[in-house]
Write a structure and sequence with these properties.
The chain has 240 residues and is an alpha/beta fold. It contains ten helices and seven strands. Strand 5 and strand 6 form a beta hairpin. Keywords: Metal-binding.
């Protein structure tokens, strides 16, 4: 199965993989994808979050979406494994509020990425914080010693039926928005440039806003993925 997946991965723009597979499988997939394919890792749980750490530090994973507990677990593992001393500074929008421990954990995670990879490609941590929204932390090639933080505000649901599937919906809709924009840009420019491995923070932030609105629909639904989710609903929801 892994061989089949890896063979197909070379033709993909983006690959999503979660903590339900082994660290070895994650590593194989990251090694198999093309130089233009971005890998998104969804930790799933505290224990399973560790499975993505080796590939993240090698620069094979470009997006991860931990909650605060998973981030702490991953950063703690990096620190115990003899990770580099963080040297990056944090630059946050005025509406971003994160604790000192979260700041240190972000610095540890970005400081652990292979230096050459970080100088050439973009890396993003999508920190999910429930009712407080999502903080997007990004390291971009032009500013390798700076971690930029921006807040994607929560899209408050009038009621909650179930939170099951909200995280998967957030990731799925965000990636869909990124890919939709990517296809439109390629069509307009007739070029294959603009890899999601070099995706700027503003573009990821806009895609996350779509993901947050999709997650809002899911928590209002008894289903793991709300049947009401479609392009019109998640793009127009924020304009109502």
């Amino acid at each position: 199965v892994c061989v089949c997946v890896c063979a197909r991965a070379r033709a993909l723009v983006k690959v999503i993989i979660d903590g339900n597979v082994s660290a070895e499988t994650i590593s194989h997939v990251c090694a198999a994808v093309s130089p233009n394919t971005a890998v998104f890792f969804e930790p799933t749980s505290n224990a399973k979050a560790l499975r993505g750490v080796p590939s993240w530090t090698k620069g094979g994973i470009h997006f991860i979406s931990p909650n605060e507990h998973e981030l702490r677990t991953m950063a703690g593992h990096v620190a115990k494994s003899g990770g580099k001393t963080p040297t990056s500074t944090l630059e946050a929008d005025t509406d971003v509020q994160v604790s000192a421990p979260v700041s240190r954990n972000l610095q540890t995670m970005f400081g652990a990425i292979d230096t050459k990879k970080k100088a050439a490609e973009a890396f993003h941590i999508v920190l999910t914080m429930g009712s407080r929204g999502v903080v997007l932390a990004s390291s971009l090639p032009a500013r390798v010693n700076t971690i930029s933080l921006t807040l994607i505000p929560p899209s408050i649901a009038p009621y909650v039926t179930s939170t099951s599937g909200a995280g998967d919906t957030l990731v799925g809709a965000t990636v869909w928005a990124l890919l939709t924009h990517h296809r439109h840009r390629r069509h307009a420019s007739h070029t294959r440039n603009g890899s999601l491995r070099r995706c700027d923070q503003a573009r990821v932030s806009r895609a996350l806003a779509v993901g947050v609105r999709a997650a809002r629909l899911t928590v209002m639904s008894p289903h793991s993925v709300a049947p009401a989710i479609n392009a019109a609903a998640i793009y127009n929801d924020g304009k109502k």
